[in-house]
Amino acid sequence: MELSERKKKILKAVVESYIETAEPVGSKAIAEQAGLGVSSATIRNELADLTSMGYLEQPHTSAGRIPSPQGYRIYVNELMHHHALSMHETREINNALNNKVKQLDVLLSEAGAVLSDLTSYPAYAMAAPAGAATIKRFDFIFVDAHTVIAVAMLDNNSVKNKLMSFPNGIEEQFVQKLSTVFNANFTNITEKELTPELIASAERVTGDLTGAVAAAASFALNLLTEAGPSRPSVSGASHILDHPEFKDVDKAQKLLSYLSDNGELMQMPTENSGSEIRILIGPENVADELKDSSVVMASYDLGNNMKGMIGVVGPTRMDYAKVAAHLSYVVRGLRQLADGGKLPLMPPDLLPAPKEGKDEN
Amino acid sequence: MELSERKKKILKAVVESYIETAEPVGSKAIAEQAGLGVSSATIRNELADLTSMGYLEQPHTSAGRIPSPQGYRIYVNELMHHHALSMHETREINNALNNKVKQLDVLLSEAGAVLSDLTSYPAYAMAAPAGAATIKRFDFIFVDAHTVIAVAMLDNNSVKNKLMSFPNGIEEQFVQKLSTVFNANFTNITEKELTPELIASAERVTGDLTGAVAAAASFALNLLTEAGPSRPSVSGASHILDHPEFKDVDKAQKLLSYLSDNGELMQMPTENSGSEIRILIGPENVADELKDSSVVMASYDLGNNMKGMIGVVGPTRMDYAKVAAHLSYVVRGLRQLADGGKLPLMPPDLLPAPKEGKDEN
DNA sequence: TTTTAGCACTCTACAACCCCGAGTGCTAAA
DNA sequence: TTTAGCACTCGGGGTTGTAGAGTGCTAAAA
């Protein structure tokens, strides 16, 4: 059943007032504030309707109404206005993303940090390879008779290195051999294909006595293993204590430890990682710990076989419009960075209004 | 004035009971529990003495006693027993440190994580160069006409790399020239000495048109800058909510945000970074946010021009004995790792009892 | 048919109050 | 020096009462 125009206005008023004050909203307040020229009694009738339709809830008989998850859903999908970012906000974000040439994980965690600062909700960010990682190139740099630097370039163009020590000495020639053998046999293979047999055979071929092959292989194996989803970085977790719904320490405790421990289980972007922002409201979340919370998230493609996601967690009473706007802007920045490889010199003003999430259910 | 043997026993009993229960301790409880064969009235007299000496406090007239910071101090310095780690605990720690070949920051943050898990207090860890960092070696790896990997080895033996892209192309010969010039002119200099003039002169010498010199120099500059104190990693922050002193959300909020934001200001090990564990109780902390909390920390030398610190933060009512034991064991592990460069194959049992902190005031 | 005013009703938050129990300090006797 | 006894203090928990916000229902008005 379609909502009447007036019902929509009333629902919107309830949601926005509740988002702002965290107090149940009464008929009188709406009558006064949301300038539709009817009395509170009329509003009451409408509220009763909206409640029986499942869009509003009553904490107890003589309290005002608060939005149900479905109510938020309608709000997010149809009623929400677009939040315009202030100059200050865009500047903050640009600074965070611009400042330096950073490594991916640092960049993501700074993106999370600024998001968290601006929205005052905890933010998390992570990156993961779209498929299994492989190494596409090895280099071994002979430093001195006891030291070699191993450098590996992954298929996603990230580069890793490791200092290897050889107390018993190693020869420069042998390091070259190492390089040849590793580039021949250990490139373009996945973690699973890097078998002990392969390593043993490499040791045979090179006639290795120093343990260098084993060390290098373990380095490679580590890279392939750890190239899996990076552990998400969580920023501003303490922000959840800002919000009255977490005045109960137990609730806060649960969410906080979920964020810091299991945050890894945070759903990675679903396959259809559309470019849009997704909003999961309360029970729409799969994780039990999030059933009372909402998540606003976006995923993005980093081009070189890497996907990432970044999002914000808060109570269902969340300022969706604001958060979506911020997130959208941050994600745009990240994409720009990924595309151009250049600094994201976004114009701080005059950017197209952000779009919000797709329907969920 | 020296405390009588009996007063010491009573003080110890008060501290330990309070640490365990978080409830003010009454004379009767002590009389029953701490088997010195005197009545509660006698204990009361002693408690009154200890209170007037400043070692105990009374929340209000008709409540039991709780230890004052000075009381904890005495306890920590003289009265505390050594906590023996269980097999399980040592195993946890060994696992955390052993598992893989890790980068320093990851290692430290895992050390913090296990410490936090075991003690159920937040832990933080950081590393910092003892002096200004310099780069001791550059390598530039020519990947293809548009891609070069820059590798730099710092004087603390850490190795960093960066992928540099050249949309307009770059020649292999030029990369070699780059290597020569950088190794000649950019090694063993500090951040301050890496001046724009130096860069300009390098550009002149190489006749650079690709921007490679600028890119490489900015890479180097970044390393030297960021080699400063790493931002500390904080683990298990949500653990503070486990403890009743933080049932007040505001307090928790303050400490939490101090930990995640300003944690950087955490005092680095004082110059005399003795090998011992230091315990700072309540007001002994310089940071205002920590005046109600205690810090148990240790610093360690990583050999190659790197110093680090790792510690635990909790309420003054902290299980100092346990925390000190855990921390001590973790630090021993880190030192072993640093010394040998090998995996820390510590015997999980039969380790010498940990020593606790030096006096503070 | 829809809107409004009026009214009785419900429920919470808050303050006032009381009482219990734990613990103290003091005194006088052992 | 220790102990028993006792009067006193104070916080916590439970109860009660009240004010206020908000509701649903009904009957009249538009």
Quick summary of this structure?
Chain A contains eleven helices and ten strands.
Task: Write a structural description.
2 copies of one chain form a homodimer. The relative contact order of chain A is 0.14. In chain A, helix 1 crosses helix 4. The two termini of chain A are 16 Å apart. A 5-stranded antiparallel β-sheet of chain A has the order 7-3-10-9-8. The first copy, chain A, has 361 residues and is an alpha+beta fold. The first copy, chain A, has 11 helices and 10 strands. Helices cover 42% and strands 17% of the residues of chain A. In chain A, a hairpin with a 4-residue loop joins strand 9 and strand 10. Chains A and B meet through strand 4, strand 5, strand 6, helix 9 and helix 10 of A and strand 4, strand 5, strand 6, helix 9 and helix 10 of B. Chain A binds a DNA duplex (30 and 30 nucleotides) through helix 3.
Overall pLDDT metric of chain A: 84
Order of helices and strands of chain A: HHHEEHHHEEEEHHHEHEEEH
**Got a strand count of chain A?**
10
Low-confidence stretches of chain A: 342-361
Radius of gyration of chain A equals 27 Å
Quaternary state of the chains = homodimer
Overall shape of chain A: elongated
What layout of secondary structure does this protein have?
2 copies of one chain form a homodimer.
Chain A: H1 5-21, H2 27-33, H3 40-53, E1 56-57, E2 66-67, H4 69-79, H5 87-98, H6 104-119, E3 123-129, E4 135-144, E5 147-154, E6 159-165, H7 172-185, H8 196-206, H9 212-226, E7 233-235, H10 249-260, E8 277-281, E9 293-301, E10 306-315, H11 320-340
Antiparallel strand pairs in A: 1-2, 3-7, 3-10, 4-5, 5-6, 8-9, 9-10
Helix pairs in contact in A: 1-3, 1-4, 2-3, 5-6, 5-11, 6-11, 7-8
The first copy, chain A, binds a DNA duplex (30 and 30 nucleotides) through helix 3.
